[in-house]
Design a protein that fits this description.
Elements lengths: L1 H11 L4 H17 L3 H21 L7 H16 L4 H18 L6 H9 L9 H15 L3 H9 L9 H26 L1
């Protein structure tokens, strides 16, 4: 708990990603040694986010397989322990965006179905955003691009996060629309 909190502080307040990563790695080791699997949910999600931020800072916007797999681990553990639901939502948003960017939604087909069918409390921020994004991803898998674009069109209306994060979600919405339009164009050719 304390090491994970320190990692968040190093990341959000001081932008010291190396120290944040050291804290997360120690926290992961500690949780694994003591079989605290439920704590690994937050550790994996924070590590995945940190990996993604490091890539962005380095202007490497390419698919990051390490970050992607950490989001998947966090999601699957969150489902297994039925909490915390905010991690399920954040992991799903990141996995879909990454998989869409690569045109590889099949990588998360099982996770998409699990998320679609899972009851997420309406108090969880970005829940509706993630649900529409998930529906769009499933539509893309089924080559139903017009339905996918319909759901993606609802993303901006579904942004219910704190003000400072709204722009990030708007960017995600537009990126997702671009990726689906790109794939739709490839399918039509």
């Amino acid at each position: 708990g304390a090491l994970t909190a320190m990692a968040s502080i190093y990341t959000m307040r001081f932008y010291d990603y190396d120290r944040a990563m050291q804290c997360l790695l120690k926290s992961e080791q500690y949780a694994q040694e003591r079989n605290f699997d439920r704590q690994l949910v937050d550790i994996y999600e924070l590590t995945a986010v940190l990996e993604g931020q490091k890539s962005s800072i380095q202007h490497d916007f390419a698919f990051n397989p390490k970050s992607f797999e950490l989001h998947r681990k966090a999601f699957n553990l969150a489902v297994k322990y039925d909490a915390p639901q905010h991690v399920m939502v954040l992991s799903m948003i990141n996995m879909i965006t990454d998989a869409l960017s690569e045109g590889r939604l099949e990588l998360i087909k099982n996770e998409l179905i699990t998320f679609r069918d899972h009851k997420i409390f309406d108090t969880i921020p970005a829940r509706d955003f993630a649900k529409h994004q998930c529906a769009a991803a499933i539509n893309v898998l089924n080559e139903q691009y017009d339905s996918a674009l319909y759901h993606l069109g609802l993303l901006e209306q579904s942004i219910d996060v704190v003000d400072h994060a709204k722009h990030e979600y708007q960017i995600i919405a537009h990126e997702n629309m671009y990726f689906v339009c790109r794939d739709k164009g490839d399918a039509a050719a």
